[in-house]
Design brief:
The structure holds two protein chains of two kinds. Chain A is α+β, with helices and mostly antiparallel strands. Chain A contains two helices and six strands; from the N terminus they run H-E-H-E-E-E-E-E. In chain A, a hairpin with a 5-residue loop joins strand 3 and strand 4. Chain A has a domain of 77 residues: hypothetical protein PF0899 fold (2-Layer Sandwich). The radius of gyration of chain A is 17 Å and the shape is elongated. Chain B is globular. Chain B has eight helices and ten strands. In chain B, the strands form two sheets. Chain B has a seven-stranded parallel sheet, sandwiched between helices. Chain B starts with 12 loop residues before the first strand and ends with a helix. In chain B, helix 1 runs parallel beside helix 4 and helix 1 crosses helix 8. Classes of the chains: A alpha+beta, B alpha/beta. At the A-B interface, helix 1, strand 1, helix 2, strand 2 and strand 6 of A face strand 1, strand 3, helix 1 and helix 6 of B. Strand 6 of chain A pairs antiparallel with strand 3 of chain B, so a sheet runs across the interface.
Chain lengths: 113, 256
């Protein structure tokens, strides 16, 4: 359950950004979270309310864009989608997959005024 | 709370209107979209980089010890401190949700220690460690052991500024733990398989366990130890001393 800590860190970062870029209210936050990032999207949603109370984000909408785990198979060279971090290539069943995406967790953008 | 979008308590209103719970709404007039591309861990990572700089300037080898509760971390630390006495100065940061019992044990073993109580928190973060360093003030060229909260999940994500994560797995746990908690075993540079003196009494397949660990992390180094009997401890101490030498040598370059 480190999702609350992640949300609190996000809020701090956005508060600093608000000072830098001169906005006072955030209406929507879009996050990109990879399926292999090791965080529970539902727990992020749950933590968002308590973490944003009394901040520029209070009452904002949270949109989470989930990104699939993708990578290149080290055996057959195919670009494949994987369900777990250390799955073997679903196509050839032999190679380790070097991930190219799926572990992200970042704020993509904000709608502000 | 809206369980779909997690927007706070009560019923938040946008421009006086109850907000629709539609997601991906287009940008409304009068608003602007700010592109951030900011990692959720950016704050922690920046603080961790500060800790890492401080360690580099002082030539300190910092290790982040992670494991499940009950793997024998604190006993391993006590034995490590006793065996390194006179060879290497060791300082310790202890992380637990509650009590200062572990820091008391470490001090009794002869090393300065600071206890961090995380309360409800399930992991240490770079901010807590930064503050602990202020009161601990580890000596130049020392080894700093950071004993994280017993938890194989959350501490994997939080960089503390350490040189290496060391994961401790004891043979009284399941041999498939590396597969069940792959993020932690992938993040670690060294795995200590602890309590190996108990192997004759257990059905624990060492080769299978090490195979699982290497599957999630082909580059992981593995040492088999028993803090209780001392078996394998010399290999661990040698590993620490080599790391410390490296940190000390790098210090000259950092401060040049």
């Amino acid at each position: 359950m480190h999702e609350l800590a992640l949300m609190e860190g996000m809020v701090q970062g956005i508060q600093e950004e608000a000072l830098r870029q001169g906005f006072t209210r955030v209406h929507q936050v879009r996050l990109e979270v990879g399926r292999l990032a090791g965080v529970e999207v539902e727990a992020l949603r749950f933590a968002f309310g308590p973490a944003t109370d009394g901040t520029v984000l209070e009452g904002a909408l949270l949109e989470i864009l989930e990104l699939p785990g993708r990578g290149l198979c080290q055996a057959c060279g195919e670009d494949v989608v994987v369900e777990a971090r250390f799955d073997l290539c679903p196509r050839c069943g032999e190679g380790f997959v070097a991930l190219t995406s799926g572990t992200e967790m970042r704020v993509k953008d904000l709608d502000v005024d | 709370m809206c369980t779909t979008c997690g927007c706070g308590g009560g019923e938040p209103k946008l421009d006086g209107q109850p907000h629709s719970h539609e997601h991906g709404v287009p940008l409304r007039p009068g608003r602007r979209r700010v592109s951030l591309e900011q990692n959720l861990l950016a704050k922690n990572d920046a603080l961790a980089a500060g800790n890492r700089r401080a360690f580099a300037e002082l030539g300190i080898l910092a290790l982040n010890l992670v494991s499940s509760p009950g793997s024998g971390k604190t006993t391993l630390l006590e034995q490590t401190i006793l065996r390194l006495k006179g060879r290497v100065p060791v300082a310790v940061i202890e992380g637990d949700q509650q009590t200062s019992q572990d820091a008391d044990r470490i001090r009794a073993a002869g090393a300065p220690a600071v206890q961090i109580n995380t309360g409800k928190g399930c992991h240490l973060d770079a901010h807590m460690v930064g503050h602990a360093l202020e009161s601990l003030a580890p000596a130049e060229g020392s080894v700093l052991m950071i004993e994280n909260v017993g938890n194989l999940v959350c501490p994997a994500a939080f960089d503390l500024g350490e040189a290496h994560k060391v994961v401790i797995l004891s043979v009284t746990e399941g041999e498939d733990k590396p597969l069940k908690y792959p993020d932690m075993f992938a993040a670690a540079d060294l795995m200590l398989l602890n309590k190996v003196d108990l192997l004759p009494y257990l059905r624990f397949d060492v080769d299978r366990c090490l195979g699982f660990a290497r599957r999630v992390n082909p580059g992981i180094q593995i040492l088999q130890v028993s803090a209780q009997t001392g078996e394998g401890m010399e290999g661990w101490l040698t590993w620490i001393e080599a790391g410390r030498k490296k940190a000390w040598a790098a210090r000259a370059a950092v401060n040049a």
